[in-house]
Amino acid sequence: MNDGPANDGKVPKKERMRFVSAEQVAQRAGVSRSAVSRTFTPGASVAPATREKVLRAAEELGYHVNDLARGVLANQSRLVGIVATRPEVGFRAHLAAALAKSLIRRGSIPILVNTGQTEEELLAAQKMLIGHRAEAIIILSGSPPASFLELAQRNGQPLVVIGRSEPDADHVRAGNTEASRKAATAFYDSGRRRLAVIGSNSGTPAIVERENAFLATAETLGASVTVAPGGDSDYDGGVTAGRALFSQTIKPDAVFCANDQIAFGLMDVVRLEAGLRIPEEVAVIGFDDVPESAWLSYQLTTFRQDPLIMAQRAVALMERRLENPDSPPAYERVIPELVIRRSFQP
């Protein structure tokens, strides 16, 4: 008689989800529960022989300290929120990965919150992170509203912003102005006079800063400049802007793109639809130096933002704020380096 499904030898799901407890470690080691607790509490007093027995038992059983419970008791956690719009796109993806690596290295637990740029979405994300007692928030993109900053300050929650400056928050910024001026000057010095710049409708502070600095420098030098109609700051945005630029009677001979994703779309339009050669007829400079920039299909000359350096600077500001909550806001500025490849060689 078959009373039910045969046992396939697997541990029932309920059993699989039962974590090893400190009590089980104590029983295996033959010590008290408090001895286990002291062994895994930094600075606590415990006899060497007892510590050795507890650690051996913990290793045999696969025991790990319940950090979540400790955080609840201490009314804080090691969680750090990484808030970003479309974190899977372009440079943001590499920056989010670098931040996660840097945070894990210091013993923090990164939590990626994929949110929009509206006040409602950002505040919803922040309330979730405060509810989980995140020790800090790092914003990769978007403009945090004043209420976002005020809520963080009332809860003593450090806030680091990357890519823009806020008067009451620590921030890390790239040298957008310096790089954009360098791009316009390099084009002009190489004999290019019909310049163009492609930004985006997203209107993020970093992209606006790059676009404005390039435009102002080119006009000061005496070159003609076309500002391409902006789409999104991605490949499709570059395609749309490229088609608008190269459908005109007078076509640009050099284009500065606010990021590499835009540059990739532009370059494909220039070569595959307009039938022009890069860099002989059209020079292109991007911004970010994502890995695809070095692909043989693009060989894009671009300004490099090092995501690891940006992440390390952001984490350093976060640690400074945790140690000195009342210190004045601080910022780090990282100047991008021009990486020369085939799309433009000064």
TrEMBL record:
<dbReference type="InterPro" id="IPR028082">
    <property type="entry name" value="Peripla_BP_I"/>
</dbReference>
<dbReference type="Pfam" id="PF13377">
    <property type="entry name" value="Peripla_BP_3"/>
</dbReference>
<feature type="domain" description="HTH lacI-type">
    <location>
        <begin position="20"/>
        <end position="74"/>
    </location>
</feature>
<dbReference type="GO" id="GO:0003700">
    <property type="term" value="F:DNA-binding transcription factor activity"/>
</dbReference>
<keyword id="KW-0804">Transcription</keyword>
<keyword id="KW-0805">Transcription regulation</keyword>
<dbReference type="Pfam" id="PF00356">
    <property type="entry name" value="LacI"/>
</dbReference>
<dbReference type="InterPro" id="IPR046335">
    <property type="entry name" value="LacI/GalR-like_sensor"/>
</dbReference>
<dbReference type="InterPro" id="IPR010982">
    <property type="entry name" value="Lambda_DNA-bd_dom_sf"/>
</dbReference>
<protein>
    <submittedName>
        <fullName>LacI family DNA-binding transcriptional regulator</fullName>
    </submittedName>
</protein>
<dbReference type="GO" id="GO:0000976">
    <property type="term" value="F:transcription cis-regulatory region binding"/>
</dbReference>
<dbReference type="InterPro" id="IPR000843">
    <property type="entry name" value="HTH_LacI"/>
</dbReference>
<keyword id="KW-0238">DNA-binding</keyword>
